[in-house]
Amino acid sequence: MRTEEEQVEALKGWWKENGKSLVIMIAIALSAVFGWKTWQQKQLTDAETASITYQNLLDAVSATVGKDSADQVATSQHLGSLLKAEHESTEYARFAALLMARIDVDQEKYSEALQELDWVLAHKPSAEMQNIVLLRKARIYQAMGEFEKGLSVVVELKGKEFSASASELKGDLLLASGKNVEARRAYQQAIELSGNAEKNPLLTMKLEDLATSEEG
Predict the structure, then answer these.
(1) What is the rounded distance in angstroms from the CA atom of residue 21 to the CA atom of residue 15?
(2) Which pLDDT belongs to residue 33?
(3) For a Cys-Cys bond, which of 88, 190, 200, 208 suits 168, CB 3.0-4.6 Å?
(4) pTM for the predicted model, two decimal places
(5) What is the rounded CA–CA span in Å between residue 161 and residue 159?
C-alpha cells in the first residue's frame, strides 16, 4: 500500500498533468449551462414582448373598426411593422401581417394588402394559415378586377376543409368575369363538397340568382 505521502505526491502529479484541462472543461461546461439559461430567458422575454405588442396591436386595430381614425391606423401600422421586424419568425408576426392586410383592404390599399399577405407566405405559415392567406389574396384580386390572377391563386389552395370555399370563390371570380356557365359548375361543386346546401344559404342564393339571370 502507498503511504499517505506517496498518495499526496501522486495526486499532485496527476493534477500537474491534468489540472489545466480539467479547469478548462469545467469552465466550458459552466459556460454552456449559463449560455443555455441565458438563451432560454431571452426566448421567454422575447415571447412576452411579442405577446404584449400583439395585444396592443389588436387593441389598436379594434379601435379602427367603423371609425375614421388615422392615429389608430398609424399606431397599428407601427406595431405591425415592429412585430415583423423584431419577432419575424413568430406566429405573432404572421398574424400581425394578416391584420395589417385587413386594414389595407379597408382603406382600399390593395397592393399594400397583397404585400402583407405575400410576407406571410414567405415566412413558413402553417398549412391552414397558408390557405387562409390564399383565399384572401384571391378576394383582393377580385376587388381589383383582376379575375384571372384570382383564379390562379385559387388553384394553389390545398386541403379538403378548404375545397368548398375554393370552389365557391372560383365561382365568384368566374361570374365576375362573365363566365356564367363555368361559374354555375363551380357553385354546384361547392355545394357537393360542402355536403349540405343548408350550410351555406348564400351559396344557394348565388345559384338561384344565376339561374334567374340566365332565364331573363
Answers:
(1) 9
(2) 66
(3) 190
(4) 0.74
(5) 6
